[in-house]
Design a protein that fits this description.
rod-shaped, zinc, 3-stranded mixed sheet, zinc-finger, alpha+beta, binds zinc ion, single chain, EC 2.3.2.31, RWD_dom, 14 helices, Herpes Virus-1, ubl conjugation pathway
Length: about 475
């Protein structure tokens, strides 16, 4: 005939419980003068004060879960017992927690209470250190000795304070593999409890949203994970969606004006939760584009067209690895990684592609850069442009005059060593210097000459020589 009175039970049920309890105690104590009405009255008034109190009127016993929420967070050290034997291998993990699983205060009132005996009680907790438990028991016994009367209210009140504002422990060390009385991992239980209690705290609070200036219940608010600023969820969704749709990527951060530079960056997952995967993808694309444009030497796109991930490159390292698809490639030639000591094989794009590149818009340029390498492309564009400038120059100046007799000489083809048809002077077409009679070619063979190795420069012969070797091999200097 158990009759537990829970806080949800109606008054009439509680009354009938009391009646049954009285009846049963009378039966149990036939011929005895024991009258439990004083104890029952105490239990009932306690229940009115602490609705979470569980009471068994029949047995004159009860229990209450004392919440543990110290003003300052507690450092919980989960000690790895393996690491304990060898101090150098300390694998302890420290958590800073705001809530710990409640401590259970259980009591039973003997017949002699409160006249001559205190309540029989226990403080149960799988994590509370034994010494702290002993201290609490001692505190309660001191109260009993001072009051010597109905003490349950004082007991519970003392414990509530001892587990919140007057909590004295800053650190609790527990074995990482400890199990609670039901065989579950104590560590998992403690960590889960802290998360759930924090969510409950948040949801029952009220916050003022700085965007819409309304007071909102925690259930319709979001706390930004990095900086902990709170706004109403709808305001954040609207704000970030507008920023991304209109391309204001740098504004996708905590909207609080005083937020710290390091913390106002958003948690990626949280942003996805707020704006949805589609807008988050657009945000990622815009951000990558911005990073590459602002710093082309540090950031580049993954050369794989299906991936296009943003790759951050170490300026001193040729090897680049895409964080998205793990493609390892050479940062110069953009081809799959060929090792540090291999040649970077840069291919010369066909002439029509170079022209297409020069005249093309951003999209065409980007596409060609991806296919032929950005550096490679700009290198061949530079070669093409200097060739063309030189050709223009030659076209303009295919006639020159002899430096000795000033006779006009027309250059038709062949090398740059000229012979005046009037005075037979040898001279250089490029610099118009008069050349030595016995060896006019020394002008092109001496390192100290301005025309060193330029015997055929700008001539048809040089162009023909180039076409023999279209692949330019560049030894990478590391
Ligand atoms: Zn709002
Ligand atoms: Zn913030
Ligand atoms: Zn990739
Ligand atoms: Zn390469
Ligand atoms: Zn001449
Ligand atoms: Zn010369």
């Amino acid at each position: 005939m158990s009759c537990k009175a829970a806080n949800s039970e109606s008054e009439s049920t509680t009354k009938s419980c009391v009646e049954k309890a009285l009846q049963s105690t009378e039966e149990a104590h036939v011929g005895d003068s024991f009258d439990p009405s004083e104890q029952i009255e105490e239990l009932e008034s306690l229940q009115a004060i602490f609705p979470e109190l569980q009471v068994d009127i029949e047995k004159l016993s009860g229990s209450i879960k004392i919440p543990v929420a110290p003003t300052k967070s507690i450092q919980i050290i989960f000690r790895d017992d393996v690491g304990d034997k060898d101090k150098s291998d300390d694998r302890s993990v420290v958590y800073s927690l705001q809530h710990m699983p409640p401590v259970n205060f259980k009591f039973e009132l003997p017949k002699s209470y409160p006249r001559s005996s205190p309540p029989i009680f226990s403080i149960e907790s799988a994590w509370l250190p034994v010494q702290y438990k002993a201290k609490l028991i001692n505190d309660l016994m001191t109260i009993w000795r001072q009051v010597g009367d109905l003490v349950l209210y004082s007991f519970i009140d003392t414990l509530l304070l001892a587990m919140t504002s007057e909590f004295e422990l800053t650190t609790v060390t527990l074995p990482a593999n400890k199990l609670d009385s039901s065989g579950n991992s104590l560590k998992a239980q403690i960590l889960t409890y802290d998360v759930e209690a924090s969510i409950h705290d948040f949801e029952t609070q009220t916050f003022k949203c700085e965007i819409c200036q309304y007071d909102k219940k925690g259930t319709s608010c979001t706390r930004l994970r990095n900086c902990s600023h709170v706004f109403c969820t709808q305001c954040l969704i609207d704000y970030y969606s507008a920023c991304i749709e209109q391309g204001y990527i740098s504004q996708v951060q905590c909207p609080e004006p005083g937020c710290s530079d390091t913390l106002k960056v958003l948690d990626e997952l949280q942003l996805t939760e707020l704006v949805g995967p589609e807008l988050k993808n657009r945000y990622d694309d815009l951000r990558k584009k911005q990073a590459v444009e602002a710093n082309p030497n540090v950031y580049m796109f993954c050369p794989r067209e299906v991936c296009e991930g943003l790759v951050k490159r170490n300026a001193d390292d040729l090897l680049a690895i895409c964080p998205d698809c793990d493609f390892a490639f050479c940062a110069i030639c953009k081809r799959s990684w060929h090792g540090y000591y291999q040649y970077c094989k840069l291919q010369e794009p066909p002439r029509d592609l170079i022209l297409k590149y020069i005249d093309g818009d951003e999209g065409i340029k980007r596409k060609l850069e991806r296919e032929w390498g950005k550096l490679n492309m700009s290198r061949y564009v530079a070669v093409y442009e200097s060739d063309r400038a030189f050709q223009d120059y030659l076209n303009e100046s295919q006639t020159t005059s002899c430096p000795k007799c000033s006779a006009p000489i027309e250059k038709s083809m062949g090398c740059n060593k000229m012979t005046c048809s009037i005075c037979h002077t040898y001279f250089c077409f490029l610099c118009t210097e008069v050349l030595e009679r016995d060896n006019p070619y020394r002008h092109y063979g001496s390192q100290f000459s301005p025309c060193f190795q330029k015997l055929f420069e700008g001539t048809d012969v040089e162009q023909a020589a180039d076409e023999i070797d279209p692949n330019l091999l560049i030894r990478m200097v590391l």
